[in-house]
Design the sequence.
């Protein structure tokens, strides 16, 4: 994890300085003397390699820096205020998508080759193929413009979170339904399933105690990037619904060439991602008794 984060921070730092742009040139042209003082304040007048070592030293002490565009706004402060909003949309989308997707996947596998199975396959193809922002726009038009029962944009309560969560869950529903269907169809053809049925277990017991638990392993594998994406991957939805999350903060930082904010958010996003992969490795042992860490 440490090596991965170090490589990501290094690559991001040097790539960011190769991109054309000046954090102090917009929104209006800043006088040269003012820009010179700002460059000196933030160390941009130093050689790039010296800036790199200074930043990495501060990073080791937990100092992610201060925004170059917003006076007094620290990177950690922006993360603290934005994470709860992003988490509501992201994890809400995962929870709704996981529950509905698992139900659809199980019923599709148990009704293999029937009408419901084909409907789930079509739903999965559409859900994976169509981007989330298309679903977001359709939901805004139907529930916000035509029916006028939910707000289109803004943030401030449960009613503001319903449409963003619904838009974020669409691809998750399709992904989980397709994955669980394929996994369960494979498990249902295993010898131990036939053995369980021959012992007199009911079909619900076979599904609940044997088939489902072994079918869910691929879903556990996907939880790592899914949970990381819950906080970092919904920036388009956040922009469409005007949600003050950290995804939106990263987009705005890139537009403004805000070096410290870009670096800090990228490192934090990377940490969340690698940490979630680590958690998934631990969860394997709880889901599958065959997988254990040796002493």
Sequence:
């Amino acid at each position: 994890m440490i090596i991965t984060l170090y490589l990501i921070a290094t690559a991001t730092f040097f790539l960011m300085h190769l991109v054309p742009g000046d954090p102090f040139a917009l929104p209006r042209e800043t006088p040269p003397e003012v820009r010179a003082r700002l460059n000196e304040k933030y160390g941009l007048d130093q050689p790039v390699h010296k800036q790199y070592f200074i930043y990495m030293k501060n990073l080791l002490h937990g100092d992610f820096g201060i925004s170059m565009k917003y006076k007094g706004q620290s990177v950690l402060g922006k993360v603290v205020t934005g994470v709860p909003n992003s988490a509501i949309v992201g994890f809400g989308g995962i929870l709704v998508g996981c529950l509905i997707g698992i139900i659809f996947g199980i019923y599709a596998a148990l009704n293999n080759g029937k009408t419901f199975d084909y409907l789930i396959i079509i739903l999965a193809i559409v859900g994976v193929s169509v981007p989330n922002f298309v679903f977001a726009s359709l939901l805004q038009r139907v529930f916000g413009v035509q029916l006028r029962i939910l707000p289109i944009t803004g943030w401030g309560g449960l009613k503001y979170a319903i449409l963003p969560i619904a838009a974020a869950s669409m691809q998750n529903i399709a992904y989980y339904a397709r994955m669980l269907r394929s996994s369960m169809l494979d498990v249902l053809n295993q010898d131990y399933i036939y053995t369980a049925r021959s012992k007199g277990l009911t079909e619900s017991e076979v599904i609940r105690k044997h088939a489902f638990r072994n079918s869910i392993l691929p879903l556990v594998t996907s939880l790592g990037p899914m949970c990381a994406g819950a906080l970092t991957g919904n920036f388009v939805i956040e922009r469409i619904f005007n949600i003050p999350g950290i995804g939106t903060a990263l987009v705005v930082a890139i537009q403004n060439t805000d070096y410290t904010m870009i670096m800090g958010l990228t490192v934090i996003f990377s940490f969340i991602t690698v940490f979630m992969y680590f958690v998934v490795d631990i969860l394997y042992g709880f889901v599958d008794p065959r997988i254990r860490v040796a002493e």
Q: What stands out?
A: The chain has a mean pLDDT of 82. Residues 224 and 277 are 5 Å apart (CA to CA).
